[in-house]
What we know:
This protein has 559 residues and is α+β, with helices and mostly antiparallel strands. Helices cover 35% and strands 19% of the residues. Strand 18 and strand 19 form a beta hairpin. The chain is built from 17 helices and 26 strands.
Amino acid sequence: MSLHMKRIIVLIIFIFSFLTSFAESHPSLNKTDTSELVKICKVWGFLKYHHPALATGKIDWDQELINLLNKTHEGHGKQYINHLLENLTDALGKVRDNKANHTYNYRQATLLPDNSWIYDTTKLGNTLSKKLIQIESVKRKKNSYYFQYIKEEGLAIPTNEKSYQDTCLDEGFRLLSLFRFWNVIQYYYPYKEAIGEPWDSILYQYIPKFINITTNKEYILTLMNLTAEVKDAHISVKDQESVFGVYTIPLIISFIENRYVVTGYYLKALYDNCPINIGDEILEINEKPVSNIINELLPYCSDVNTPTKFRIACDKLVLTDKTEISLKISNQYGVTIKNIVTTPSCQINSKARFQEERAPVIIKDSIAYIYIGSLTNEILEGNISEILNSIGVIIDLRGYPIDDAIGNLLDYFLPKEHIKFYQTSMPNIAFPGVFNFEKDNPSFYIFSERKESYSGRLVVLVDERTQSTSEFYAMMASVIPNKIIIGSQTAGSDGPAVPLILPNNVLVKYTAVGVYYPDYSKTQRIGISRDEDVFRTIAGVRSGIDPLIKRGVEIIKIF
């Protein structure tokens, strides 16, 4: 046997011994009852946000979880787990009995904490339950180490969460990822009641899934699956290209009339001679029916509402790991197969669906058309005189703004008196799980100080591309006299999105502030109120005659 071969054999034996040793020192958590891991998650998260000792950041709470999980195999049954959790709680120190009647205003609360489980002595035992109940009522500071209110931004955001970028994601760190996300939604998500399914049941479902992950791809996909359960269009998980493909079919595909239709290009400059035209229906990708691919993608897409869920799925549909793909298309000339070269995802404008390459201002027949996705303050300033001299204005909010130009434009339409157009709910960090309707805030009110104002008809266009800031502008427009809002259901994800870092340096975003109409009616999942439903059509896409713009012109002309 050669020396080289001997070295290889020794190396193989060493690796095998190392892996065996690692497995023995890290027994699989599969042997731990899921209900006990649920208990660990809930107690760990409860203490994280409630116990004053953790508000300083001096205790590595993530490591305490990892240590606890590594001990679960040393004993059996709920009594042993309760013993571990009680030791974890005691190590934080005693809390003083609260004699200041530390309570919150039920009348101002839009969301209350779901802490009934801490009273369950059957699961927790008498002593652990008693300690958690005492901790729940203890007086806390307005800011904690892990969640802080940023006054300048008017946001409460997760802070000081470690990314563990270079850490091997064994079972403990994978469960840390699940537990961190689950508890943030448990205590700091404004629309938890809109999730539909009990949030506890999600924990039961996903603990086995996170334990059984074997690759980074599975980790990302499982996170996408988990976060989609929140049913929030703001929810996004970084690195989706790494699991769905680093190349892109540079076509914007939209779900219209229950079919998948090309409505634009992610990289138009490369496709002046593209074999796929706007209006073509995509039937198959690499001989696989598009409907089948979409069905595989939907579990990774937030079910905020049907139009938005399919919009999100179409954004994933164009990702691939191939440099060339075949498309079966259908159009007015029949069904054909076309080959198309893909483009590295990093080279395309991923926001092209929301910021199309179209003229920001078009004035025709004394009617001004304004597109939010390309309008800037500079362009607005150069066109404002013509806009104000028009007989009607169509503001197209089916996109996402580049700056605050639309807000400045709406200022010419607003009434002179103060009028309230929205209401928010904010988390009460001193009482994790409580969201309060914010007290009257000057920002809730809007009015125009301009001497010159617009007296013509205003038509606002919306659909599933109207999301977040665009929905906020639509709410602002709703208080304008002589306005009409037409279109279809919007994304139903109003309010600011904030980041949360998960292990392996995965960035997740979620909605942090509740946004409501002045009468406290909801917008989440429902979307913006409309005066008239008008939908995109395949015929309109192919002809270039947009049904919403056409209807907007008709409304203005009969005004």
